[in-house]
Fold this protein.
Amino acid sequence: MTCIIRTIFGFPCPTCGVTRALLSIVKLDFKSYCYYNAMALPLLIATIFMFLGTKYKIKFLQIISASILILNIPYYILRLCTNSIP
């Protein structure tokens, strides 16, 4: 299955490989996890924190979530520059 963002715009999105990475970590295949997207687990946590922070109006969880998402930007740029996005 190809990423719709990659199909439409011709370049991978910042979350490319997250699904495959999370499936790899469930299988305890850490090498594949890092290959697909090492930020997958932090991004999952950020998503959960953002949902909970918004639902229960917990500003601290929203700040942590936003921080994780911001940290993903340089990682994404590094992956683009090194052409390491599968």
Q: What stands out?
A: DSSP finds five helices and no strands in the chain. The CA atoms of residues 27 and 33 lie 9 Å apart. The mean pLDDT is 93.
